[in-house]
Amino acid sequence: MRKKDPYTRIVSLILCLGMLFSLLVLAVGAREEYIPVEWELDENLEYLYGGEKRYERYYVRGAFYGDANRVFHFANSAAWKGKMCQVYGESADPHIVSVGTEAGYHSIFVDEEGKEILDAFLARTDCIYYLESLDNYNYTEIGENLVAALEASYQNQGLPRKWVDVRELGEADILEITVHDRTETKAYQHGAVYIMPNGSYYYVCFETLDNRFFDADGFFSYRSGSVHVYELDKAMRTQIDEAVDAMAPQKTTILYERYVMDGTYDVYGNPIDETDSQDRRTDIVLFFVLTVFAGFLLPLAALIVGLALAHSKKTGRAKCWYALSICAVVWMLAAALFMLLVAV
Fold it and tell me: Is 70 exceeded by the pLDDT of residue 47?
């Protein structure tokens, strides 16, 4: 019986290790591709599933509306009752998700952190206040102290208040005070300052009023009736005037997931310039060239060598060379699966 050449085993081992190392290099060198989120609604509209997260339905206590500084439009919609519902969030990995389940209306879903954000927003323990002009849609952020002072004055029974027809208020210059969550995604009306034609500044705190002052959507109505107003003193008028002088147009950043998918923007809304795009295309070409060479051509050569040496008289038809051929086949199958996963 012929004794097997130890060098044959060493060469086989080195070649096998080389193949495994090449696969590792391919896996590490692959660029991570953005995968769009798939959304799924349960039939009872209680849960929303997206990616690896489950969102719970958030039932609104009172009326709040979408007024986001940043909106992320997801490419995939969520199917519900035979229709496709558009999905929005404040980011690519949102805590608060809006789903257009009805015309003009959205169902709100939150993860654990999103629930904490909205709870604190509605309780006004963690929120941001805006003063917004309804005439030109300019706005500015105002401090909690000013809002608290206005509210305290309105509720102080010892200070003079009077009844004013809401239609008169609707004709004035209206400066709404709105409350926003800390992500500046959702908002609701807190009250308004009205600059009357005679120069008086009136304030109404909406949060102290009952339902008869609001329309079906929960917004303060100017159709009919009268409401108590508090006339601002000189110091408060000065603060309001200073806030108006600081107003600027509100800007909303809208990012579409499809632009992230095609490489135009990153997930934070930053444009990817042409140089980055060209580099990315170059990386893709190099990656596939490397994959074809290291994943198919090299193991094909190893397969041929292994079969040839296994049948060679010079090697004594050593069976160990079949191991090299088997490794080569596994190598090519793994490379094919790897390319399939990357392409999909």
Answer: yes
User: How far is the C-alpha of 270 from the C-alpha of 273, rounded, in Å?
Assistant: 9
What one-letter code names the amino acid at 74?
F
Give residue 283's pLDDT: 62
End-to-end CA separation in angstroms for the chain: 52
**What is residue 317's predicted lDDT score, i.e. its pLDDT?**
61
**Per DSSP, what are the bridge partners of residue 70?**
253
DSSP symbol at 214 = B
> Per residue, what are the HEC states of the chain?
CCCCCHHHHHHHHHHHHHHHHHHHHHHHHCCCCCCCCCEEECCCCCEEEECCEEEEECCCCCCCEECCCEEEECCCCEEECCEEECEEECCCCCCEEEEEEECCEEEEEECHHHHHHHHHHHHCCCEEEEEEECCCCEEEEECHHHHHHHHHHHHCCCCCCEEEEHHHHHHCEEEEEEEEECCCCEEEEEEEEEECCCCCEEEEEHHHCCHHHECCCCCECCCCCEEEEEECCHHHHHHHHHHHHCCEECCCEEEEHHHHHCCCECCCCCECCHHHHHHHHHHHHHHHHHHHHHHHHHHHHHHHHHHHHHCCCCCCCCCHHHHHHHHHHHHHHHHHHHHHHHHC
Q: Output the pLDDT for position 29.
A: 47
- Average pLDDT taken over every residue of the chain: 84
Q: Which of the four pLDDT bands, split at 50, 70 and 90, describes residue 287? A: low
Q: Give pTM, 2 decimals.
A: 0.70
Query: What sign for the dihedral angle of Cα 175, 178, 183, 186?
Result: negative
**96-112 residue pLDDT tens:** 999 999 887 889 999 99
